[in-house]
Amino acid sequence: MKGKGVTAVFLSLLVIVLTLSACSFNTDTPASPHGQEKIRVYTTIYPLYDFALKIAGGRAEVVNVTPAGVEAHDFEPSPRTVADIYEADVFIYLGGPMDPWAEKIAKQLAEKGVVAVAAAEGLLGDEDHENEGDRDRDRDHDHDRGPDPHVWLDPVISKTLAERIAQALIAADGENADHYRQNFEVLKARLDDLDKKFREAFSGVKKRDFVVNHDAFGYLARRYNLNQIAIRGLSPQQEPSPRKLAELARICREKDIKYIFFETAAGSKLAETLAREVGAGTLVLNPIESMTEDEMKAGEDYFSAMEKNLENLKKALAE
């Protein structure tokens, strides 16, 4: 995680940038926000960006603050990027440990007329999905847990995220309210369909334990009565001790784990090490915290990533 000194410097720069922006703020705001036909929307992480893009349906310019392919957990924007956010019409952040920097500026943004929304407000809480894997494993990082931010991996919770995004767009651009509502209903139906696919896939399976690179799939596991066992904690930067790896190897053998999951952004070294130790294979399980430029150019999005997650989970849990 970032050191206190780095955070202090960041906040100092942030105050300077926001002060300068406030001094140059144009009080003669035109009827169309910032003189643009499209409202400008900033999001902090990829899932929020993808949902906002789908709900906006071309009526907004949507920008994701975290660059493509960048690990989102420890990302902090530059002062220049913060200044750009200050000129937005809508700012959508998750809230909690994934984007703590956003909470520090949200109130100031709202005071200047930016619609600032914490999409996951009231939804976070890792105590809601503690599972057998959490209880069994050696938890080297209990001191560093806190609320689990990965709510978007539960399609049912994602409907709430999407609804709050739609409400934010309507608040900023009421003239296109019907457009945003219609697109939200389409997105909601797709999330319902995704939820149905997951429920049907795992309703009758006997094996329910799966091993992942980091503790990102608790909400998904709880929704579909699965059991996540994580190598790392809530942040993929947390490194397990040799003692913890030995304990994980024991659990994998006891539970007859055939595959160890990893995500490409965090690398596969630990997953491959554990897989070799227990004679298992490896598969990708995507936490969808970010997308690479190549993935987005290829047309990948939240739904295609979740479909791939579903297929790989089905393979890992097959008898």
From TrEMBL:
One of its GO terms (molecular function) is metal ion binding. GO terms for biological process: cell adhesion; metal ion transport. PANTHER family: HIGH-AFFINITY ZINC UPTAKE SYSTEM PROTEIN ZNUA-RELATED, ZINT DOMAIN-CONTAINING PROTEIN. Residues 1-22 form the signal peptide. It comes from the Bacteria. This is Periplasmic solute binding protein. Belongs to the bacterial solute-binding protein 9 family. Residues 125-151 are annotated as: Disordered. SUPFAM superfamilies: Helical backbone' metal receptor. It holds the Pfam family ZnuA. InterPro entries: AdhesinB, Bact_metal-bind_prot9, Lipoprotein_PsaA-like, ZnuA-like. Residues 132-148 have a biased composition (Basic and acidic residues). Keywords: Signal, Transport. It comes from Thermosediminibacter oceani (strain ATCC BAA-1034 / DSM 16646 / JW/IW-1228P). The keyword Signal applies.
